[in-house]
Amino acid sequence: MAKIKYIEHNGKEHIVEVQNGLTVMEGAVQNDIPGIDADCGGGMSCATCHVYVKEDWYEKLPKKEMGEDDMLDQSYEPKSNSRLSCQIMVSDDLDGLSVFLPEKQV
Amino acid sequence: MIKTDVVIVGAGPTGLFCAHQLGIIGLQCEIVDNLDKIGGQCIELYPDKPIYDIPAVPECTGEELTNNLIEQIKPFKFNFHLNDRVQELTNENDNWVVKTTNGKEFHTPNVVIAGGVGSFEPRKFPTKSAEKFDGTSVLYSIKDKTIFKDKSVAIFGGGDSALDWAIELSNTSKVSLIHRREEFRGAPSSVQKIKELSEKNVINLFTKYSIKDVKGNGSLEEVEIKSEEGESKILKADYVLGFFGLIMQLGPIAEWGLNLDKKVIPVNTENFETNKKGIFAIGDICTYPGKLKLILSGFHEGALAARGCFKYARPKEKYRFEFTTASNTIKDRLGVK
What we know:
The complex is a heterodimer. Chain A is α+β, with helices and mostly antiparallel strands. In chain A, 17% of the residues lie in helices and 22% in strands. Chain A has a five-stranded mixed sheet. The longest helix of chain A is centred in the N-terminal third of the chain and has 7 residues, at 24-30. By secondary structure, chain B is of the alpha/beta class. Chain B folds into two domains: 2-121 and 247-334, FAD/NAD(P)-binding domain (3-Layer(bba) Sandwich), CATH 3.50.50.60; 124-244, 3-Layer(bba) Sandwich (FAD/NAD(P)-binding domain). Helices cover 23% and strands 28% of the residues of chain B. Chain B has seven helices and 23 strands. In chain B, the strands form seven sheets. Chain B has a five-stranded parallel sheet with strand order 6-3-2-10-22, with helices on one face. A five-stranded parallel sheet of chain B has the order 12-19-13-14-15. In chain B, helix 1 (13-24) links the parallel strand 2 (6-9) and strand 3. The relative contact order of chain B is 0.17. The A-B interface holds A 37, 39-41, 43, 45-48, 69-70, 73-74, 76-80, 103, 106 and B 41, 45-46, 49, 117, 123, 126, 157-159, 179-181, 183, 185, 210, 228, 244-249, 263, 293.
């Protein structure tokens, strides 16, 4: 279980407890947090669960797998700390993670 | 104007199998899709990815699934209207008048929306200023490459479209290629070619840059690009091209007066009709208690929606359930003995 903070583009914060084994994307969708569309449902096939990870956390997360950066090329305003939230698996280690949601997904 | 029993919006797996079921029960349909090819998300998002949960098919790719579905409905010779999008739905005397972007018009008692998450459209530049030039000098696809001859062209993107066009247009135009990171996702041979052209100064290559602004008085004159550190550069550009892949937009479906729950359409589970008589929604775009976004669920929904269509298409006939193994009528429709 990890407490994850989702920060909307307008600054509104949502802190939710997400079960281990779910993804950061699922944590948002299941808790009705606006700003993550997840059109493809977690298949790394779209780029609509795009988040920016706070710099100190970005280094701590497991590295991106093949293909994630290719999808991020197609996201809205990608930056060097961009991730697809469907590719970040929640575990106890992620307790306290903050992610920033982009202005929009599509 | 085309008269038909059913118009299916969306040529993904769900729409295709619904067409099959319509053919089996003896109805005609026309299928419209915004993409230039049949298959929907299966063909656009994951043609090569294996799918493991199609009943009785242990493993197949999005492309194989699509090809098999196309094969399965071949006997019915249904028309596909690709590269076209249903724009308008209006009701006239219990019939739906369906108008498309390309000016086609269908008259039908039934519309089946199998639109997935909406229609695929190119992702556009986030910069507001680009909107002013959209379609004239800021482009997301190329119809006529001769317009770029002897012009300055700034191409954004790191995939095959961006690379292929950068290589092609560098023969006759002054090309700048701008990408947000150093790695490209295009074919290795294209990446190699881009590097060579960049070394020979045929192409101006800018990696780790993205668009900041486009400027011009009347016509486009320059594009400003920025690095993540905030450094910016100004490039002369008569045209700016963006190749960032496709995104899905609900689009005009939202305007048809249907009940919507966020981006999906609530339906009943008896025949998947929406709040409008004769309009059905199946596949990822529909919702009901217990809805699963699986292809197999879309197949089931399509089969039941097809029977729902029968009621309005053949009001004087009674629908008779038949098995494909036993029915000679169905075998005739399939063209098998």
